[in-house]
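Figure caption, in words: inputs first, then the predicted bound structure.
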Amino acid sequence: MKDVAHRAGSIAIIGRPNVGKSTLLNRMVGMKISITSNRPQTTRHRLNAFISESDAQMVLVDTPGFQTQHGGELNRLMNRTVTHSLDAVDAVLLVVEAMKFTPEDRKLLTILPRGMPVILVVNKVDRFADKAVLLPFLEEMSKVFTFAEIVPVSAAKGTSISHLKKILKAYLPEGPPQRGEDEVTDRPERFLAAELVREKLFRLLGQELPYAATVKVEKFELRGSLRHIHIAIVVDKPNHKAMVIGKNGAKLKQIGTQARLDMEKLFGGKVFLELWVQVKSGWAENAASLRNLGYE
Ligand SMILES: Nc1nc2c(ncn2[C@@H]2O[C@H](COP(=O)(O)OP(=O)(O)OP(=O)(O)O)[C@@H](O)[C@H]2O)c(=O)[nH]1
Ligand SMILES: [Mg+2]
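Bound structure (guanosine-5'-triphosphate present):
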């Protein structure tokens, strides 16, 4: 790596749904900023996180999982967010799961801008106790595309994350820091709060419900050191509403408690969180309604 005073640039994290992109971003930043769950298509919005070190500042761009199996307006928007995220970055991290390279992964190779360095991150290597089994897979990966690097990691366990960060620095152009050292994301607290509620929908509700729901911040006020946050959970059908609320309101209470605890940790202060459920049929079906609900 050429010896320069300071580097600054951005790197997009892309991959098919559920490969561990958001877990990787959180691990690299050392803080839970982006929501994660064991279900595909958890991330719906682009999110920038900043890593500041003495010799480099890196913007990491988390993106929705790119997929072509499900249609619909929301899915179209999510895929567009992925391709737009590739516009102004210095390099791309393409995340795949260890020992698994699917046709959906292959499709991602076709949306990469020409000439951009692509670093292949082979995630979830903790699933294989004997790392030797990975060698033929890594060999195969080196043949499907001219990757700038191939880095096996475990985002969940934190294996090889500092190695990955070190490698990435070489792909950042020389330049001064663009952000304050203590800035971690470009997203405001009200966005992060809404996302944490959405995360709980993915983690606590079964079947298709999380996909039929979204959230909307109705109020976000800082009174003294207490944050008063009111968030509407928007669902598609009346029977969804009953499921989110649960028996005697138990499910909604659980969603609220878990989301509030995460918010308090992230914001470093007490939160008063009020949630309610609103039925809005067809919220995900047209661009105007999606825009109204904060989708870009
Ligand atoms: N075993 C193992 N699981 C992991 C690892 N990294 C992520 N996961 C799990 O994989 C699932 C998906 O993680 P996410 O970070 O939400 O994946 P994503 O790629 O951001 O998914 P979308 O936003 O839906 O596209 C979660 O259950 C994670 O805990 C890893 O290194 N090892
Ligand atoms: Mg994600």
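Residues 250-267 form the longest helix (18 residues).
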